[in-house]
Amino acid sequence: MNVIEVFEDIDAPPAVVWDVLLEFDSYPEWNPFVRSIEGDPAVEAELEVRIEPPGSRGMTFTPVVVAVEENRRLAWLGRLGVPFIFDGYHEFHLDPIDGGDRTRLLHRETFRGILVPLLFDEQQLERGFRAMNEALKVRAEERVQSPTNGPNDTDNNPEAS
Question: Which residue stretches belong to region Disordered (predicted)?
Answer without folding.
Answer: 140-161
